[in-house]
Amino acid sequence: MFDFDEELKKLPNSPGVYLMHDGNDTIIYVGKAVNLHNRVRSYFRKIVGRGPQIDRMVEQIARFEYIVTDSELEALVLENNLIKEYSPKYNTMLKDDKTYPYIKVTVGEEYPRIFISREMKKDKSRYFGPYTSAAAVKDTIDLMNKLYQLKTCNRKLPRDIGLERPCLNYHIKQCAAPCQGYISKEEYRARIDQALDFLNGNYKPMLRELEQKMTEASEKMEFEEAAGYRDLYNSVKSVAQKQKITDSNGEDKDIIALALEEHDAVVQVFFVRDGKLIGRDHFYMTHVEDCDSAQILLDFVKQFYAGTPYIPKELMLQEEIADTEILEKWLSSRKGGRVYIRVPKKGAKEKLVELAAQNARLILSQDKERIRREEGRTIGAMKEIAALLDLEDVSRMEAFDISNISGFANVGSMVVFEKGKAKRSDYRKFRIQSVSGPDDYACMKEVLTRRFIHGMEEKEDLDRRQMDHTFGSFTRFPDLLLMDGGRGQVNIALQVLDELHLDIPVCGMVKDDNHRTRGLYYHNVEIPIDTRSEGFKLITRIQDEAHRFAIEYHRSLRSKAQVKSVLDEIPGVGPARRKALMRHFGSINEIKEAPVEKLCEVPEIPEHIGKQIYEFFRTEEK
């Protein structure tokens, strides 16, 4: 719970920007202040006549945060950029608001696409930009698609290859039609690599190739084709010039500083794009005991820029770090251009770094109590459970649950909590294979057996290849196994572990008559838990999560079963013909009533298939 009285006392007598959040943590207002202490406090005084809109806004505020600046002018600039970024509900907005576009290449797809994006996400795609000219971005994308004949549609390939006809782009020679298998995945990927090379600024190979093709076409007196290559050549030169202009219009840099206090560290990053401070973010660093600030900064740079989709030209750090030269080379290779790491000593840049450090110190001061509460809910709760069961250490817990409806589509779920937090990347679903009826014990035995055999096989494979045992989600076994139930479920788990010669503590999560967690079943004894303790709350969260995950999986299987079409039962009618029929007739009833000649009007339906469809529905009626 956000303590307004306490947080209002912490407000500094400094210029800055403040952000108001509602109950959904959405930013609803951004404002600037000459004195943050006076301005923010004024919202929470009983003031008459300040206007109904401000009153409504204040009623929705669940928490606030702020950024300290060196001057009111800096606060104004930052306020403007944050309003553009978040579009708060209670700020006056400029309707023709502008965001800088990026070029996005979906290299994570088997058949990547290139298109414009107004935001960067931490996904598997590559981003180029931001660009100040949207027209230059459009020209670049049009050029890439025209030159390399790349797909622009959203068809899922290779899954949908051959299901539909090629689109107009194929017929006008602007797409190589990978949707029909007319180009191999390897050749398509080679074209994407060439496009990436171009986007990284290497224009000369493409210009040479186009010039050569233009000359060859002219010599063969194929003047129309030569004119096409000439237009592409001019487009490449135009885009190259526009990109040079874009690159020189402003500076892209990240300003990085940290605050370190005892066992806590916060790194603050200011993002400067095209010479403008567009926003900031802060990051907590764990396991900082016995580390100095330079080491923490080094670790942050390595980890953060290994995952972020955009790397600026310059990183401005609070202090010198080790391995600067190597880091610059690594960052430059990831960016595809020179990256500098600098530590400003004086002037405006040094002030910006100090500003970032100041904000990091403020965040650390505000959040220390919140961090302690979070640790109590997670690591502290794990320690409570370990002490309750007389176990030395519990870091990883796995919980299992079974879901079915009268034995239909038996499924099992496995959820994982590490250090008190859900580790969703290690969650697993099991579709029961050996049990047909509603037998939860038999289902649980199959799930546990498959889980641990899989893990043992992965470990053996790693041993043979002499690899680290952190590879594979099943490889790491839990410190504690949690079963959704009492003695029966625990005994099933113990039986499986005994058969596999594994020694893992097993604990049942026992529920009362109202289906609420009431205690733990361990070593044939039910152990009561203080329902107000963090350990009890964690057990409840784990039990609810295992149940939710199993129910969601079961629901998805039921949905898939329900969408099965009657057309799937007709021999010769697959997904492509089914889609064509539905597109042509609009409903099953219309297909059912159609004579053979009408069915054969669908291009994908030959006469013998039309007869089969017609006879199928007539037989069904009998």
Q: Please, could you describe this protein's structure?
A:
The chain is of the alpha+beta class. The protein folds into 5 domains: 4-86, GIY-YIG endonuclease (3-Layer(aba) Sandwich); 102-248, no CATH class; 253-376, Ribonuclease H-like superfamily/Ribonuclease H (Nucleotidyltransferase, domain 5), CATH 3.30.420.10; 383-560, 2-Layer Sandwich (Nucleotidyltransferase, domain 5), CATH 3.30.420.340; 566-621, DNA polymerase, domain 1. It has helices spanning 4-9, 36-42, 52-60, 72-86, 134-148, 168-171, 185-199, 204-219, 223-248, 293-307, 324-335, 347-377, 379-388, 440-465, 487-499, 534-562, 575-585, 588-593, 596-599, 607-621, and strands spanning 16-21, 27-33, 63-68, 102-105, 114-117, 126-128, 253-261, 264-273, 276-285, 314-317, 340-342, 396-405, 408-418, 421-422, 428-431, 480-483, 506-511, 517-522, 525-528. Strands 12, 13, 14, 15, 16, 17, 18 and 19 form an 8-stranded mixed sheet that branches. Strands 9-8-7-10-11 form a 5-stranded mixed sheet, sandwiched between helices. Helix 13 (379-388) crosses helix 16 (534-562).
